[in-house]
Design a protein that fits this description.
By secondary structure, the protein is mostly helical. Helices cover 83% and strands 0% of the residues. The relative contact order is 0.07.
Length: 396
């Protein structure tokens, strides 16, 4: 039955079209104003993040690493070790493992680094000779002129290159400071992490604190799988490419596999650089046919990683659709470069956790789901779900 507007009596039970259109425009205006306020607040937050990024980045990086190191820290604390000692032992142990692995592969890398550089140099020369012949038939004189022009330009820009080198040295120093800050923050996160949520509940109040506790716990669990997933993906890439290079008889297969593993932690740039180097080595050592096979191998592995392995593992550990992961990495890499590409997926995962929690609370309030159907991570989350369900309007 149609509802009759109070100020505009209906004729034959039908509302006037002007009234309906006016109500629609009023609704649109209200929501447009609200969306403008939300967009303005988003711009302000984005501006603040840009201004405070020097301090925000170490915090984000320390949080991501802390999610991985927390399980062994908790295990030591449960065995009676003081929180500070447990955090210090886990951090020192992790550093020892990292540098131990690095030290184990360094001798072979050093022994083969000269050969690797020599092979790459010869590969460039071989590539130049290859493109000058059929089917490309590029004029070798034109190639030499291009190389000479590039050399002349580099010599003319020597002053700018020196300034860039100084800027690079400054960036290295800044990176070291950031690394030390990350380690200090990581220690405090592991040492005092369990005190954070009770502090939030005391400050925000029991009701809001319970919501924040549940959201923070779900975000923590989701982020815990991020680095483990990255390590698994990089290891699979290194193993597949290493086996393929060994089967094809490409020299320095082990060194290139190790570089592939570490390059996997640098989105896009790392995989491209290592793949290009592997193709060059194959070109000079085995010829164009093997180089093309190596190129096909790298493209196939990258396709498996990008379209199957990484979306599957990250989709399960972070509960994100493959399309969302691809979009997040693209936007993050475009806006913030390599750092943005690295942090885009965990940031998107936390955002998805928040949106899912809000949707869940809405369903509870609307009576669509019950508190028993909510998979809460904390006792506070279960209790607040029951409270929200009790506040749901009872149907007639």
């Amino acid at each position: 039955m149609s509802t009759v507007h109070e100020t505009e009596p209906a004729r034959d039970g039908v509302l006037d079209r002007g009234v309906v259109i006016g109500e629609g425009i009023t609704w649109l205006a209200r929501w447009s104003w609200r969306l403008l306020l939300v967009a303005g607040a988003t711009v302000i937050v984005w501006w603040l993040l840009a201004k405070l990024w020097v301090g925000v980045f170490p915090i984000l990086l320390a949080l991501v690493v802390a999610t991985v190191l927390w399980p062994p820290t908790r295990w030591l604390r449960e065995r009676g070790l003081p929180s500070a000692l447990a955090a210090a032992l886990v951090i020192l142990g992790s550093l020892a493992v990292f540098f131990g692995v690095l030290g184990a592969i360094t001798p072979s890398m050093i022994s083969q680094s000269g050969d690797l550089a020599h092979q790459a140099s010869k590969g460039i020369t071989e590539l130049q000779a290859w493109v000058s012949g059929p089917p490309f038939n590029l004029d070798s004189a034109a190639i030499d002129d291009a190389v000479g022009s590039a050399t002349t330009w580099l010599q003319e820009q020597s002053g700018q290159i020196a300034s860039g080198a100084l800027a690079g040295a400054s960036a290295v120093g800044s990176g070291l400071v950031t690394l030390v800050l990350v380690l200090v923050l990581l220690f405090f996160f592991l040492k005092d992490g369990p005190q954070f949520l009770p502090f939030v509940r005391r400050v925000a109040g029991e009701r809001a604190g319970a919501h924040l506790t549940e959201v923070a716990t779900r975000s923590w669990v989701t982020l815990g799988g991020f680095i483990r997933t990255q390590a698994i993906v990089s290891a699979v890439d290194a193993v597949l490419i290493g086996i393929g290079l060994a089967v094809l008889g490409v020299p320095l297969a082990f060194a290139l596999a190790v570089l592939t593993f570490f390059g996997g932690f640098i989105p896009i740039v790392g995989a491209f650089a290592v793949g290009f180097l592997a193709v060059l080595v194959a070109l000079v050592a085995q010829g164009p046919t093997t180089a093309l096979l190596v190129l096909a191998l790298i493209i196939a592995v990258q396709q498996i990683e990008g379209n199957v392995l990484q979306p599957f593992l990250q989709g399960r550990s972070m509960q994100l659709h493959a399309g969302v992961i691809l979009l997040a990495v693209t936007v993050g890499g475009t806006v913030f470069g390599i750092v943005g590409a690295f942090l885009a997926v965990p940031v998107a995962a936390v955002g998805a956790v928040v949106l899912r929690y809000l949707s869940e609370q809405t369903n509870l309030r609307a009576g669509i789901v019950t508190a028993d159907e909510v998979a809460a991570e904390t006792e506070e989350g279960a209790e607040v779900a029951e409270d929200v369900e009790d506040e749901a309007p009872v149907g007639e």
